[in-house]
Amino acid sequence: MLKEAKMKADLEAPLPAGQEDFAIRCRDVCRSYGKLKVLNNLNLAVPQGQIYGLLGPSGCGKTTLLKCIVGTLKISRGHITVLGKPPAFPGHDIPGKKVGYMPQELALYNEFTISDTLTFFGRIHGLTSKETQARMNFLIDFLDLPQKTSLVRNLSGGQRRRVSLGAALLQNPELLILDEPTVGVDPVLRSKIWHHLVEIVKTGKVSVIITTHYIEEARQANVVGLMRHGRLLAEGPPDAVMKQHCATTLEHAFLQLCETSDNENDPKQESSPPDGTLESQPFPRVGSPPAEESLKVDWKVRARHMLPKWRNIAALMIKTFVRLKRMPGSLFLQFMLPVMQITVVCLCVGEPKGIRVAIVNNETLFPSVSKSLLSFLDNSSVQQVSLSHQEAFEGIYNGKYWGVITFGKNFTSYLIKRMVEQQVSREIIDGGSVHIWLDETNQQIAFMLQKKLQEAFKAFVDHNLGDRAYQVALPVKFEKPIYGSQNKVSAAFVTPGAALSIMFYQAIGLTTLAFVLERKEGLLDRCFVSGMRSFEMILAHLFSQLFIISVQIILLLLMILLVFKIPNEGSLVLIIILMVLQGVTGISFGLVISSVVDDEQNALQAVAGLFQPNLLLGGIIWPVECIPYPLRYVSLVLPLTYTTEALRCIMYRGWGLSRMMVWRGFAVTLGWNTFFVILATVILKLRM
Ligand SMILES: Nc1ncnc2c1ncn2[C@@H]1O[C@H](COP(=O)(O)OP(=O)(O)OP(=O)(O)O)[C@@H](O)[C@H]1O
């Protein structure tokens, strides 16, 4: 607790004065990934209106530092101010339009054209289309880009990097943060980029921090910072750094610094720097008075900061639709996959057909009751094969037949005796019975055969005995069902759960992939730095997904109700709302998965791993009543169980919201939604 409180106080403590002369100030900044300490009491100062070259070996923490500066990563200790305030301070435009950020990854939408890319970022920064157009023309010319209608995915690696740089320069930001902008760029263009940076800082209004692996090109920077193991070894004008180390190149000076830092111990490193270069702990040049006042925020500004910007949401939605337009195959699949899945369910679940059954009929009499009885068997389901006793039993043992039905030699006469005489012997009862052997390895088929034989017997008795049929009927009578149909086994049981799980998993898959891929490609970070908030991204994704979900639901219901004629006794409005809610639950669960996993392979494995247990535990393909306790309790809290039950109640019982089994389904799905959104937000915050 104490440690936390100290850390909070540390973070909130005002920075010393003098910071107005600096675009960026970092003091005692620490940041770790788990146990790996990446930034280690780092001090750094980027003067206003100058180029700062941040140099250091791979893995020393440059990108991590830049991410902390733009506010996409939180620091664990220390202070950072960017253009006078901490990053992500309410009402501050960092992240936002004051900063242009080019991340190390390309962070571009492959399906966009160059024009789409710049228009997208222009929209986020609130540029008018005229302003965007003017900047676009300049940048295309300056960065030597191909036609603006060229698709990003068709550009070369170097061209893509230049488009990425163009996106960072677009809104003429006050602060440019460029993470290795010259990698993969030819020397002529590299020198042109540096020339441009030198030109734009001349106004004194733009500051630049740039990382590069080409140490010598950083001589054009006004100040360089040499970083190693999460600390700055030295900071100062390039000439001063070289002079101090009697080096003719920056690279040489850097190598010397590394050697010195390896050999020397800390107290020595902190000795006072000559020549205006600042070694080891270069956060000096500051006065004292606190700037507490400047850090106070009006509640109106805070409230405005909390509200979503519709401009950003619109920009993101347009982005999604432009991408979908460029990927018609993917859009078609998104619409048609649910239809294909439900078609498979409705076609494949139902009465088994063509079940081969061996008939051993020992009756020679004609006309015989056995033949008449067999004629009532449903021939579309049961395929009768007449065989001898031996062939029939060999066949069933070899898996050729699902059952053997036998009739004794005197079946007809014995059956009549059974019906007519009051007292008959066991032999007559036995001889007047149909004997059936079943292969019950497939219980669905065995149940179906039993049912078909009972139906055949009932139809035979009704046909032959008419009004007297009741005399031989079982003393158990099944009346007309209250709900559902007695006659046919159909896909009715499975369809509601299948439809809901299709909506649920489609939404999980699309959401997870969208966010995981965008984060992996650096697009999320780039959008955040442009000023986009995470809930704006979630809202934009939700709105665009709702469009896709709506089309999917319309197509699903057309298939279910009109093509496969699954009965519906209830309100179509309730069915649609429940399906939409289930889709939204899928979106929020997708957010949870994408906040936990970092690559698409793990994401897909997570979704695939959850799919099958959920089908069974959710009571979608097999009744929940079969699940033993205490697993039943797990089943009941799953997102699909009560919603599936609710949908069945609406469709087959015609129930409305006044029934507990219906409103419980709605309540559970809303509860899951809220829980998933909160969980995803907490995980994302913890992972920052
Ligand atoms: N998300 C992360 N989780 C765990 N470790 C990370 C993460 N990001 C970076 N690291 C580790 O932090 C260290 C610093 O990484 P960083 O990307 O900041 O280095 P860098 O100086 O920018 O390297 P390069 O010049 O190669 O881009 C590396 O050891 C890296 O493996």
TrEMBL record:
Biased composition (Polar residues): 270-280
Domain ABC transporter stretches: 24-254
Keywords: ATP-binding, Membrane, Nucleotide-binding, Transmembrane, Transmembrane helix
Protein name: ABC transporter G family member 20
Localization per record: Membrane
Membrane topology: Multi-pass membrane protein
Main localization category: membrane
Residue stretches spanning the membrane: 538-564, 570-592, 661-684
Source organism superkingdom: Eukaryota
PANTHER family, sorted: ABC TRANSPORTER G FAMILY MEMBER 20 ISOFORM X1, ATP-BINDING CASSETTE, SUB-FAMILY H, MEMBER 1
GO cellular component labels: ATP-binding cassette (ABC) transporter complex
Renumbered residue ranges of the record's region Disordered: 261-291
Domain ABC transmembrane type-2: 458-687
Keyword presence, Chaperone: no
InterPro entries (UniProt xref): AAA+_ATPase, ABC2_TM, ABC2_TM_bact-type, ABC_2_transport, ABC_transporter-like_ATP-bd, ABC_transporter-like_CS, P-loop_NTPase
Sample GO molecular function, one term: ABC-type transporter activity
Organism: Oreochromis niloticus
Pfam families: ABC2_membrane_3, ABC_tran
